[in-house]
Amino acid sequence: MFEIPHTLGRPDISLVICTLDEAASIGRVLGGARAALSGRKFEIIIVDDSADEATGDVVRGIALDDSRIRLIRRRHGYGLASAAIAGWDAARGDLLAIMDGDGQHDPQVVARLVAQIGEADVAVGSRYLAGAQTGLSGLRQVISQAGTLASRALIGAAVTDPLSGLFVMRRDWYLAARPRLSGIGFKILADILACGPRRPTVVETPTRLGTRIGGDSKLDLRVMAELAGQLAQARTRGLIPARFVMFAIVGATGVLSHMLALLALTLAGAPFWAAQLGAVAVAMTGNFFLNNALTFRDLRLSGVAMWQGLVGFYLACAGGGLISEIAGTGMARAGAPWMVAGLAGAVCAAVWNYWSASRAAWGHPPAAARSSRAFSQAVPVRIGTPRA
Asked: For residue 71, what are the β-bridge partners?
C-alpha cells in the first residue's frame, strides 16, 4: 500500500472514494466533492485498486495542491467493501462518508447527508425513496431490486435502499460494527447496517445515479452472491462465514454440471462407474475455477500455484465425498429417511470441503478484520505546500 500522508489537523468529515480504473472521472469527482464540502473541515481519501497508475497519478497531481486529499494505493485489493474499510480505518473524521469515483453520485448529496444526520447512526442517499429515481435499467434494475428486498428483510432496519453506495455514518457506529464486517464484495452498506450492536437509526434523502463518466458497472450476479454471504455472516454473528455461503452457491452449480456430464457420458456409451467418475471430475474442476474467481477472489491463484491448488482441491473434496458416504449411510442405518440421510451427508461434506479446500488450495483465509488491510507497507510520498 502506498499512501500520501496528511499534514493538516483532524477533520470533521472523512469522505472515502473507492476507485477501479477511473482516471477519466476522478478529477471531476474530486472537484465536485471539494466544492460540496467547502466551509467544512474535511479530508478525502481515495482507495485505488486500479490495474495501473493512471487513476493514482491524477489523484497525486491534485494532492500536490491540497493536503486534504489522501491516496491509498492497494496492490492486491479486491472489492469495494474491503477498499471502503481500508479507507475508514485510515480516516480521522467523526463522520465517515463514501461515494463512488465514477461520477454517478452527486457530491452535493454528501453535504446534505452530513447536514441531515443529526443524532442518527447512518444517513443514506436512497434511490428508492419517494421522489428518487434509481438511474438503473434492464437486468441491473432487476438485480438491484431483488437484492434490496432481500437485504431489507434480513437487516430489519428502516431503510429503503440498503444497497446504496452513497452514505454517511458516525465513527462510533463504524467502530462498533467493524469487528464483524466481512470485507467481501461491493455492497458495504448492508454489512454496515447489519453488523452493528443494535438496530441502527437511519435517515435518508432521495438521490439518483447520474451518467457514469469513467469505470465500469460492478453490479452483476456475482455481486449478489457476495451480498448473500455478507448478510448470512452478519445475521448469524459470524457463525456462517460469508465465504461459506458463496462456496455453497458454487457447489450447487456443481450439482448441475455433474448431472449434465453424467448424462453426456452415459449417452456416449460409457459404463455407469466411468460416467460417474468423469462427472465427479468435471464438477470438481468447475467448482475449483468458480471458487477461485468468486469465493476466494482476493486470494486468487494463477500460474503454477493454480494447478497446485487444483490438486489440493481434488484431495480435499475426495475427503468430503467419503465423509458424505459415512454420514449418510450411518443415518440411514439408524432409521432416518433416505432424503434426510442424504441431506445430512451433503451438509457434512460441504462443511468439510469448505474448511479443508480453503486451506489446501488457497491457504487459510484471512480474518475479516485483516482482509481489508493492505498487503504491503505504506510508503510516504512528498507533497507540496497545501493551497486549500
From this structure: 46
Which region among 38-52, 246-260, 340-354 has the lowest average model confidence (pLDDT)? 340-354
The secondary structure of 66-130 as a DSSP string is -TTEEEEE-SS--SHHHHHHHHHHH---SEEEEEESSS-S-HHHHHHHHHH-TT-SEEEEESSST
> Which residues, in sequence order, are CB contacts of 369 under 8 Å at separation 6+?
178, 179, 181
Q: Return the bridge partners of 167, or none.
A: 98, 124
The answer to whether the CB of 59 falls within 8 A of the CB of 30 is yes
d(CA 330, CA 338): 11
pLDDT tens-digit readout, 133-191: 545 455 555 555 555 555 555 565 678 888 888 999 999 999 999 988 877 766 788 88
Given the C-alpha cell 469505470, which residue does it identify?
215
What are the grid coordinates assigned to 87, written together? Answer: 479507507
Q: Which three cell numbers stand for residue 46?
A: 481515495
Domain boundaries, the chain: 2-217, 242-370
Grid coordinates 449434465 are at which residue? 260
The confidence score (pLDDT) of residue 237 equals: 67
pLDDT at position 1 over 80: no
- Asked if the 2-217 domain carries CATH number 3.40.50.920, the reply is no
Average pLDDT on 21-37 reads 94
- What grid cell was written down for 304? 503454477
Could you please report the per-residue DSSP string of 366-386?
A: PPHHHHTS-SS----------
